[in-house]
């Protein structure tokens, strides 16, 4: 397929609160991203580097469709921050302040706020063990693991631990243990959260397929849902992540997440780099 790109493959580099993305706009030509391409572009030394790669595709049912890849080449069913970043780009393209998109999760709605942040409805949280998924029937609000974390699905799996001090957690040691724990047949994202004040949480994340990232939008949504269910907070919270702040509002129509978006630079993946990857 490399011959389709004699002048290379254009991409955009974006981030939402420091969660960074390579975005490839494949509208009008069909999907091109492979696991091998995602791994190669995701390499921070030999490629571009990203936490997730997002590919925009045409959709018959919404303004566009979006697929997500982690930097290890695995697919993800949801990526809240990339959804906000790409929606901002698409709102610019369509000269609108709201867009509808389709992900593996289903139809999502995104809006630009008056202050320039972008808000997306990430849908209803998944609380059933099969939807998350877990390997066997469990009380998803109290998993049988040290610290009794909460399992929440947001179109992707999350395991949320509430701890006294999220800063004190040894994330590189703890994260991979739970990412690969047998309770999670599709692996999981792992969040450690502590209460900073009324309706304000600190969250650090170890992402499935990407490791430590500066922010995880779906993880912030999962943490807010878990905190509200545990009675630690109300349903509208601020989540302080390493890369900034995300505002989560768990409403009757779904979990809304608002935060900053940035398009940093555009580039072209050269034909010789692409050789054998498409
Ligand atoms: N950074 C994301 C989540 C990306 C996907 C995740 N690593 C997975 O494999 O589920 C976000 O902003 O939601």
Q: Care to describe what's here?
A:
With 278 residues, this protein is α+β, with helices and mostly antiparallel strands. The chain has 2 domains: 2-122 and 261-274, Diaminopimelate Epimerase, Chain A, domain 1 (Roll), CATH 3.10.310; 150-252, Roll (Diaminopimelate Epimerase, Chain A, domain 1). It has 5 helices and 17 strands. It has a 17-stranded mixed sheet that branches. A hairpin with a 2-residue loop joins strand 11 (189-197) and strand 12 (200-207). The mean pLDDT is 97. Bound molecules: the ligand N[C@@H](CCC[C@H](N)C(=O)O)C(=O)O. Ligand LBFN2T5F binds next to strand 4, helix 2 and helix 4.
What structural keywords apply?
Diaminopimelate Epimerase, Chain A, domain 1, 2 domains, 5 helices, 18% helix
Sequence-ordered SSE layout with sheet pairings:
Blueprint (H helix, E strand, L loop, with lengths): L8 E8 L2 E7 L9 H8 L9 E6 L6 E7 L4 E2 L3 H15 L3 E6 L2 E7 L5 E4 L28 E4 L3 E6 L8 H9 L9 E9 L2 E8 L3 E2 L4 H13 L6 E6 L2 E8 L2 E6 L2 E8 L1 H4 L4
Parallel strand pairs: 2-3, 4-6, 10-11, 12-14
Antiparallel strand pairs: 1-2, 1-17, 3-4, 4-5, 6-7, 7-8, 8-16, 9-10, 11-12, 12-13, 14-15, 15-16
Protein name: Diaminopimelate epimerase
GO biological process, one term: lysine biosynthetic process via diaminopimelate
Subcellular location: Cytoplasm
